[in-house]
Amino acid sequence: MADRYRDILVVELLGGIGDLLMVLPAVHALARRNPGAALRLLTDDPGADLVRGDPAVTEVLTPRRGRTGCERAAVVAALAVRRPDLAITTARYDGIPDLLAASGARCVTDLWRRPPPDERIGDRYLRILYAEGLVSAEDLSVAPWVRLRPDELAHGERTIADLVPPTAARPPVVFVTDSGMAVKLWPRPRWRRLAVALVRRGHPVLSVTPVDAAPVDAAVVALPGMTLRQLAACFRAVARRGGIVVGGDTGPVRLAAAAGARTVGLFGPTLAVRYGVGGGADLQGLPACRHRLPTRVTEQVCWWDARCPLSAAGPACMADIPVYRVVSAVTRLAESGSTAPGRPGRMRWPAG
């Protein structure tokens, strides 16, 4: 790889925390392959806070929300300050690719091109950059990783130490019951039954979001309100105790994996082999659903209003994941004995 770049602009404006985390390995790989480069990342709040202080990122830019076209305006402003010699974007709307191309920079403006249905999105990004000669083969196994400061790590340790008894027989399990979209929600009664099953097995059960019915309330401990970085630090502390985070296809579960925790992901309308977290176990409901469009999820009949053509009671794919499968996945991870976060090939920073 002979080419090296001095100024790199990465535009990630898809709006979700998970979207940012899926592109983060590409950001780290580009920084690794271009030592000394200025790398600017244009992304959305609140996820932007996760990369402030990251040694791979020189500057974090965010659009000024509240007016139409603010994302395009943010790209225009970034280009006006300084023309990059390499520009990467996941955003395909509002003429953003054309703006970058007109800057004269070398551009990769379609990280979504020709996606196979069985390749995870973050891996696809890296593979396209590899095909473009921008990253190396060893970068293909880089996983998302959020760097945290020592004081944040200490705060996460204190928070979890206050909530998890030191005498707990088994590792803690953290629930993320909300998924941002109704179509991705696991039926709420399943969470209550899962909590009962895990507590009986000796797992302390925490929750980022409410589990709202007796007798579970007394057994499930709610995490206090916190920032995304504080939540990441709590996930890191859970990981150090061999704990597991359970939730749907949503940003906080991806954040847990990027903080080093093992995860059990619950997937229905999105296909786990494409959208999976890869942090331990990804469980798929109704894998053969004929209404699922793995590479065009926003066009699915159920996507925007969660009206399932197979069930009037709600998404049949999410209901197809029984409690016992989740318990089995948690048990298998808990009994694996591994508490070390990371998968082979993850790039590690000096600390955090």
How would you sum up this structure, described in words?
Keywords: Glycosyltransferase, Transferase. InterPro entries: Glyco_trans_9 (IPR002201), LPS_LOS_Heptosyltrfase (IPR051199). Pfam families: Glyco_transf_9 (PF01075). It comes from Planosporangium mesophilum. This protein is an alpha/beta fold. It has 2 domains: 7-141, Rossmann fold, CATH 3.40.50; 150-334, Rossmann fold (3-Layer(aba) Sandwich), CATH 3.40.50. Helices cover 33% and strands 14% of the residues. The protein contains 11 helices and 11 strands. The protein has helices at residues 17-33, 70-81, 96-102, 121-131, 150-163, 188-200, 228-240, 251-258, 272-275, 316-319, 323-334, and strands spanning 7-12, 38-43, 59-61, 86-89, 106-108, 173-176, 205-207, 220-222, 244-248, 262-267, 280-284. A 6-stranded parallel sheet has the order 8-7-6-9-10-11, sandwiched between helices. Strands 3-2-1-4-5 form a 5-stranded parallel sheet, with helices on both faces. The longest helix is centred in the first third of the chain and has 17 residues, at 17-33. The chain is globular, with a radius of gyration of 20 Å. It starts with 6 loop residues before the first strand and ends in an 18-residue tail after the last helix. Mean pLDDT is 91; it is low at 339-351.
